[in-house]
Amino acid sequence: MHYNYCRKHQTLGTSPAVAAGVADRVWKIEDIIDLLEAAEATPIKCGSYKKRQPTISN
Q1: First to last CA, the chain
Q2: pLDDT tens digits, residue range 11-26?
Q3: CA nearest 29: which of 56, 3, 49?
Q4: pLDDT tens for residues 3-57?
Q5: Is the CB of residue 6 less than 8 Å from the CB of residue 27?
Q6: Distances (CA, A) of 49 to 10, 34, 41, 52
Q7: Within 10 Å of residue 23's Cβ, how many Cβ atoms?
Q8: In whole angstroms, what is the distance from residue 9 CA to residue 31 CA?
Q9: DSSP 13
């Protein structure tokens, strides 16, 4: 993410994400950290466990 969103490339003059139109600005490293913290704070719901019945092959 740093390479594509934060780092200004010499040949492009901006980040590849901005050049491709994926992002509207060059991100700071703090923006990536905020995304990671938000993902960690979101609880993951697990489905109910249902034991599978063994299948019989002919």
Answers
A1: 50
A2: 999 999 999 999 999 9
A3: 3
A4: 999 999 999 999 999 999 999 999 999 999 999 999 888 777 777 777 777 777 7
A5: yes
A6: 52, 33, 24, 9
A7: 17
A8: 19
A9: S
Q: How far is CA 24 from the centre of its chain?
A: 17
DSSP 15-50: -HHHHHTS-SSPPPHHHHHHHHHHHHHSPPPPPPP-
What is the model's pTM? 0.63
Distance of CA 31 to the CA centre of its chain: 12
Structure token digits, residue 23: 């992002």
Residue pair 5/26 in contact (Cβ under 8 Å)? The answer is: yes
Q: Position of tokens 């992002």?
A: 23
